[in-house]
Structures are given as structure tokens and as C-alpha cells.
Amino acid sequence: MTGLLLSGRRAEARAELDTLRSLFPADPLVPLADGLLALYSGDEAAGLAAFARLAAAAPPEQGERLQKQARAFAAVLRSLREINTAPVFGPPPPATRKAIESAPDSVVALFKEAATAQGPLGLPQPVVARFFDWSQVYMTGGRMLLAGAPMSDVIAAVDPALERAPDAALLQLSASAHLLKAQDHLRPDQKEQLIAELRIVIDRGEAAAAAPTAIPFGTFAYQGRTTAAFALALISLPGFDRGDDARLRKNLRELVREGEAFPALRAESIELLLRNEGLSADQSRLLLADWGLSAAGQSAPWERLAVLESRLGNHGAAKAAATRALAAAPTDTALKSRLDQLLRSPNGK
Predict the structure, then answer these.
(1) CA distances from 312 to 36, 282, 285, 347 (A)
(2) How far apart are the first and last CA of the chain?
(3) What's the rounded Cα separation, in Å, for the pair 141 and 151?
(4) Residues 266, 88, 338, CA angle at the centre, nearest 5°?
(5) Which residues contact 187 (CB under 8 A, 6 or more apart)?
(6) Are 175 and 216 in contact (CB under 8 A)?
(7) Cα separation of 140 and 158, whole Å?
(8) Where would a tag sit more exposed on the chain, N or C end, judged by fewer CB atoms within 10 A?
(9) In angstroms, what is the C-alpha Rg of the chain?
(10) Contact 219, 208 (CB under 8 A)
């Protein structure tokens, strides 16, 4: 059960806990698992209360240690939650910056306690070492990224961990670092280095999209998908001629489908991709149509498609997309005004 929890499979862990509770309601593992699940779900008060119940049934010295470790673990998860619920695009808010700067130290302190015979929270050390080790690498790399460290240093801190920890959070962090490193190879004579970095980004992003994670509160798999799609679009830009239309199309479809759970992030990701000239008109059209069909009742995808078709001179298609946008938001007078003006203007200008 703990292994499921620390592998990010919390629904399965909860099912195991329900079975344990029904069979052995007095087992001390019940409040332990209750506490871990609550902390992992972001309910710090409930988690600490469960550990207080567990500590009350233990010898005084062990009970005090359990509560101390539970509070430290809660602090680590609080830092992770602050980091991973911040906006994906744009600069992080001050609270997130503070969390990134302070979190690795708290992880190191807790990891040292994990090395004791009993381990943190009374769990065996091998069970939890993976979580603390990966979290330390993730937050240390994040702190370096935020501090403006050279991308080669960030990559050196993160990439070696991928062989023993193919975690979505680490894969996505690596993909982001390699994408930023690619910007160091923008000179015409460095085309091959740039393409090599982008291929790493694509592979890491796709791997993140398919990988589990032990680190809670993040959208690492979806960010991996977005990063892979963005790199595939970049490598398709004129002058590179290394694009893979089938692979890009697959990632765009998955970006729309997987983004149903993250509608705001999906909208930002799609807008970012559309600004990239690596997408052909057909790819942009298919991406927007997929988004519109997936986001029932939303006008934004169809309005964006109307703008695209108008700029391409496809006035019939622009009108059809505008009609679908208005059908999704029939009382939005501002939308109607924008679309009326769009359809009257040549080439969407």
C-alpha cells in the first residue's frame, strides 16, 4: 500500500486501505495510511490528526518522534504543493520562489532521518528512500533553474537520476532544461547541436507523459506532453526540415485529450503552440478542431479557428467556425461583435 502511495498510485492505495480498515480496524497501519493519504491529498490538518492518533497508541518517545517526522513530512509536501500548483507559464510568484529556495534543505534533513533503522514515520527506509531521493533531486534542480544557473549544471544535477528514477517530474524537469539549453545553440553554425537538444527534449517529454510520479500536486505528465509537442513544432520550422508530421500529430491529439483534466493549462499550451510557426495550417486547423470537440460548450477553440481560417482566406470555413463559437456562447455580445468584425475584415485583420 505504501509502495502504491509513493509511486503516485493513490487511488489504488486508498482501495488497499479500505480493505485493510474493513479487515483489521484496530491495526496501527490504518491511521498511518490515513495520515499519508491525507497529506498526499493536500489535507494537512487531517493528516497530522491521523498521525497524532497513531502517536497516542505508541510509547511516548516513539510517539514524539512520529509527530515530529509527520510535521517535517507535511512541510516538504507543503513546499511541493506550492511549487507544483504555481502557473506553468510566466515567472513564479514570490511564495513559489521562497518554497523552491527553502525546500531542498528540508528534504535533506528528512532524508537523513530516513536513513535511520526505523525510517521516517515508522516506515522501513527502502520503502520511502525513493520518494525523498527523487524529491531532493527535483527540488534542487528546480532551485537551480529558478536561480538562473547554467543549463548544463541543471542537466548534470538531474539527468544522472533518470536511470534509477524514471519519474515524470524528473523527466519533465530534464526536458525543460534541455529545451532552455537549446536556446544556447541558435547560431546558424550550431544547427546540429540545436537539433540534438530538441530530440532529447522530445524523447524526455514523451517519456514524462507516460511515466508515473511519486511527487504529488504536479502536472508533470501533461507538461511533458506539451514540451514534446512544442519541441516537435520547433524542429519542423523552415530551415530545420527534421520534422516528423505523424509524431507531431499524435502528440497534438494527446495534448488535447490529456488536457481535458487541465483545461486552463491546455488552453495556454495550445495558444503557445499556435504562435509557433512550426505548425502548418493543416496541423493548426486539426489541433483547434480537436480542442473544440473536446471542450464542449466553450467558444474559445472555435473563435481561434475562425481567426485562422479568415487569415488564410477561407471565408466559408471562418464563418462555419464563427457559427460554432456563437452556438457555444449565444449570449456573449462581445464575442459576437468580435466575430462580426472578423468576418467583415479581409484576411482576419
Answers:
(1) 54, 11, 11, 6
(2) 58
(3) 10
(4) 50
(5) none
(6) no
(7) 9
(8) C
(9) 24
(10) no
Pull the grid cell for residue 301: 477553440
Pick from 1-5, 39-43, 262-266: least confident: 1-5
pTM of the model: 0.79
Q: H/E/C letters for each residue in 265-278?
A: HHHHHHHHHHHCCC
CA–CA gap between residue 155 and residue 151 (Å, rounded):
6
Q: From 324, 230, 237, 321, select the one nearest 274 (Cα to Cα).
A: 230
Residues in the chain: 349
Residue type, 262: F
DSSP state of 303: H
Among candidate residues 50, 81, 79, 78, the one with its CA nearest the CA of residue 66: 50
Quick: pLDDT tens for 117-163: 455 555 555 555 666 677 778 888 888 887 788 999 999 999 999 98
- Name 67's Cβ contacts closer than 8 Å, sequence gap at least 6: 48, 51, 52, 55
Q: pLDDT by residue (tens digit) across 229-253?
A: 999 998 888 777 667 889 999 999 9
Mark residue 121 as left, alpha or beta (left: phi above 0; alpha: psi -120 to 50; beta: remaining): left
Alpha carbon separation from 288 to 223, 229, 268, 273, 291 (Å, rounded): 19, 14, 13, 11, 5
